[in-house]
Amino acid sequence: MTAKIIDGDKISEGIRKNLKKRIDGLRKKGTEPRLDIILVGNNPASEIYVNKKMQSSKGIGMISEVHRFSEKAKQNEIIEKIDELNADEKVHGILVQIPLPPHINEQAVLDSISPEKDVDGLTACNLGKLVTDERAELMFEPCTPKGIIRLLEHEKIPVEGKHAVVIGRSNIVGKPLSFMLLKRNATVTICHSKTRDLKSHTKNADILVTAVGKANFVTGDMVKEGAVIIDAGISRSGGKVVGDVDFEQVRKKASRITPVPGGVGPLTVAMVLENTIIAAERKLRF
Description:
Layout: E1 4-5, H1 8-28, E2 34-40, H2 44-59, E3 63-69, H3 75-87, E4 93-96, H4 106-110, H5 124-132, H6 143-154, E5 163-167, H7 174-183, E6 187-191, H8 198-202, E7 207-210, E8 228-231, E9 235-237, E10 240-242, H9 247-250, E11 256-257, H10 264-285
Parallel strand pairs: 1-11, 2-3, 2-4, 5-6, 5-7, 7-8, 8-11
Antiparallel strand pairs: 9-10
Helix pairs in contact: 1-10, 2-10, 6-7, 6-10
């Protein structure tokens, strides 16, 4: 068996075409969707991610702006800027590129974003709504998990009744994705750095998602024949951007697999844009 490669670039291209039409519809009603991004420091990976978001937003005709702060910026300076953007009626989406420098309380900064503009879905308010399903119609789902679900839906991969194993328990990917899979009636196992005998869990996975940022972390002997492999990890190895999965080994056993780059990443960016457009559409309704 050789796995079918899930082309995230192609899927995201189709999503962006649809989003462009929605932007055209909003313009006719006098609304220009706008995304503002906070970037702190000079993290090379963060620079790349922000550039991709800016390019993609401009590519579909969305207004976007980056607000840059030095590595030594104080937490209150960043929150003051977020407060300013919260109050700006022209701004629909606010995104803080993480990680932030260690002297800054990351969650405190994220929680200063108004929930209705939290297009990354990482405030305690939106994460809480995800867990409880409370007022789900006003919730923003975190972009990487939302992108993963969209990949599964596009590929018509059934989730209900399947055993999904998620490696990683971050608030960005692992935890929210687990709740989103549970909502779709999967049986979910969450693994992390303290999990004993990781292979015993991963080999039972119908759907295996990994998001740990370690090159070649998931090897062929850890995967069940015919499993669906979603690689949401990213790191550098040999001067190249790679995922968590030993791609060449694992693709020989899996039925579907996402590459890195070109798999989950483009969908994450597309979901940022989609959430921003949703924010603009909601503002017109309420």
